Amino acid sequence: MPKRIFSGAQPTGNVHLGNYLGALRNWVALQHEYESFFCIVNLHAVTIPQDPKLLAEKTRELTRIYLAVGIDPDVSTIFVQSDVHQHAELTWILNCVARMSELERMTQFKDKSRKSENVSAGLFDYPVLMASDILLYQTDLVPVGEDQRQHLELTRDLAIRFNRDYGDTFRVPEAYIPKVGARIMSLSDPTKKMSKSDDDPNGCVMMLDDADAVSRKFKRDVTDSGTEIRFDDSRPAISNLLTIYQLLTGKTSDEIESHFAGKGYAQLKQDLADVTVEFLRPFQERVNGIGTEQLNRLLGQGREKASKIASTTLSNVYAAMGVVGAGTSE
Ligand code: TYM
């Protein structure tokens, strides 16, 4: 069987530079080496309340974004999670394998539930749905940002436990977390990751931001003390900016440091804004150029391809557990 990758993003809010540099960029790079599945995870999105009309719109927008960053539908499968009912079904089964105590340890759940008074059971169960996404496709590798590491460990634990209790059924996946860019930080607070739920909208550069917004956000970016422009772990703000610059230009750290030698923060911010705008312009043109018909055709093909694999895995799971119904011979 070819080696597979699976990954996904939530169609909530807007896709930001952190999502791209930490995850989507690597999907594009890996898609030619692996059989690839990229999912728009709308069932994860509803673990916190969403405006129905907006969620539907954002689901289609995220599909356009996948295509515009360079996911090639001729080699990769793009589909919407709710189109393949096996994701929800396998979640039920894995709910019966996962333990409350291990879900209680999930740091993303702890962070997210702290922000809300009415925490849904779905939010608690979010990592189990994510494990189902991954395990349904017998995935080898899961390219994600650093914040998903713990969810990947849980996924592996659930696969190993199921295989031990019911026989070899799931491939045990590995996380692919890039060395550079796995945790892009907020521009307004470099101790926090860049996030769409950031209280300060200036901390987060959106992939659909216009040139003015991009420049404004980089200009307002907080800086740390010291004037030298170089990679330095003890100066998180500057290191974050240089990391973004490095990933967008493809230059080495030495090249970047010598380019900025003798220059100040203002120059770095200006250059970074220019590089980002140059990167986003053709990307945004591609987003706007993808028509409704093309999108529908593509998601239909994606649903078909994904459903076949998902249904085989789920049948194997049910058979392994003795979950059988009508039409089964004695
Ligand atoms: P989402 O939509 O929150 O994030 C999508 C991807 O972006 C990465 N990411 C970042 N990377 C670097 N720096 C940041 N500041 C940053 N913020 C976000 C995330 O790590 C993620 O890879 N739970 C997933 C969605 C999901 C999924 C899956 C992923 C559902 N099922 C199965 C892989 C496999 C998530 O966080 O989406």
Overview of the molecule:
The chain is mainly α and 330 residues long. The chain folds into 2 domains: 4-182 and 292-321, 3-Layer(aba) Sandwich (Rossmann fold), CATH 3.40.50; 201-287, Tyrosyl-Transfer RNA Synthetase (Orthogonal Bundle). Helix content is 54%, strand content 7%. It is built from 13 helices and 5 strands. A 3-stranded parallel β-sheet has the order 1-2-3. β4, α8 and β5 (174-176) form a beta-alpha-beta unit. α4 packs across α7 and α10 (236-249) packs across α12 (265-289). The two termini are 31 Å apart. The model has no long low-confidence stretch (mean pLDDT 95). Residues 6-10, 18-19, 22-23, 41, 44, 130, 133-134, 142, 144-145, 147-148, 182-184, 193-194 line the site of tryptophanyl-5'AMP.
Quick structural gist:
With 330 residues, the protein is mainly alpha-helical. It has 13 helices and 5 strands.
CATH class of the largest domain: Alpha Beta
| Cα Rg | 21 Å
**Are there runs of 5+ residues with pLDDT below 50, and where?**
none
Kindly state the number of beta strands.
Answer: 5
For the biggest β-sheet, the strand order reads: 1-2-3
Compounds present? tryptophanyl-5'AMP
The DSSP helix count reads 13
In terms of structural class, how would the helical and strand content be classed? Answer: mainly alpha
Give the number of domains: 2
Q: Round the mean pLDDT to the nearest integer and report it.
A: 95
Q: Supply the CATH superfamily name of the largest domain.
A: HUPs
Helix content: 40-55%
The CATH topology of the largest domain turns out to be Rossmann fold
Strand content: 5-15%
**How would a crystallographer describe the biggest sheet?**
3 strands, parallel
CATH architecture of the largest domain: 3-Layer(aba) Sandwich
End-to-end C-alpha gap:
31 Å
Dominant shape: globular
The string of secondary-structure elements, in order, is EHEHHEHHHHEHEHHHHH
